[in-house]
Every structure is written in C-alpha cells, then in structure tokens.
Request: fold
Amino acid sequence: MSASPSIKEQLAGFAGVAAALMEMLRLAKGALNRQQTQELETLTGLQETLVGEMSLLSGKLDKELCEMQGDGQVLCLKMESVLTHLQLVARNVGEMVPLIRQQIAEGIPFSLKGNAQANQVFDGLAEILDDLETIFRTDNEELKQQVLLEKGPKVSQQSIDFATDHEARMIEGLCLPHAAPVFLGLLDAVRNATRHAMEVARLIQRRTPN
Reply:
C-alpha cells in the first residue's frame, strides 16, 4: 500500500483508538493484580466511550466510501476492515471484565506461576497495541512486520502454552479447578485480541515501495 498523505491521514485517525485500547488493557491488568473492581468500572466506561468514537469513525468512512471511486474506494474498504478488527480487540479486552470481577467476588486465587503468566501475556499484548499506535502515527513498515511475524505469534503461542501449563497444574493439584474458567478465559481474550491486532498489521502492509 502506498504511503500517500491520504493513507497516512486515514491511519492517524486510528491512533487514538489504539491508545484507548492500551488504557483498557492497563486497567484490566491493574484490577487483576490489585484485586479491585474500581478499575473495572473505569474500563467499562472507557469501552463505552470508545465504542461511540469508533461508530463515528465508521460513519465517516462510510461517507467517504460513497464519495470515492477506484483506489479511493479500495482504501476506504481496507480502513473499514481495520476498524472492524479494532472493534473486536475492544470486545476481547471487554470480555476480561466479568472474568476478573468473578475472580475478585469469589476470591478465586491464581498460583504464583499462573499470575506471572497472565501478566506476561497482558504485557505482550500491551506492547503490540503500543506498536499499533506508533504504526498509525508513522506508517512504520518495520513495526508492522514485527507485530505480524514476531510479537503477535509469540503472544499467541504463549497463550496456548500457558493454558496447557494450567491444565497440568490442575492435574498435579497445584491449581484450584474453579480458577480454570477465569484463567483460561483471560488467555483466550488475549489470544483473540492478538489475532485481530495481527490482522490490522496485515491489512495495512505496503504493497508497493514509497
């Protein structure tokens, strides 16, 4: 995809979305580590605001789509796809709220290893979202490749590996069975959010040199 000014302008419009997604994830991690629901309430309010902002972005893209032809229409359709995947990232992070709320309400403990693993994948996803914000501001091709080929696959594989580790700990009696739905649900949310973030990077790769 050519890095023309119009494309850079379109991408820059998503930078605020990526920043809000990072903040949502930070709040989720904070609630998990501090076992406090206040951050979950803030997260939910932020998600509602972000949903409204993304709806406005979608309406703007729809309007532009109707006004453009040829390559302009192709670009708008691609940006619509990017926005859809960002919306799904927001949904995935939002899915962490009831899981963490349940853990806090029922006093469900994670093992030290499980807690460390949860933090590790949260941090990995946060780094990917931070990269997306930079990509939206700079159209940095190297970062796109890192998200798509290195960081994204790493976090996805960690989510799978940590789920397997958790099942082994349960068999060994090192983890409570009722912690499984919460822990595995959080890993699934991270893995799904990562998959959509990778798809964003794939969609906005350049097809031709500058």
The CA atoms of residues 41 and 97 lie 9 Å apart. DSSP finds eight helices and no strands in the chain. The longest helix spans residues 141-171.
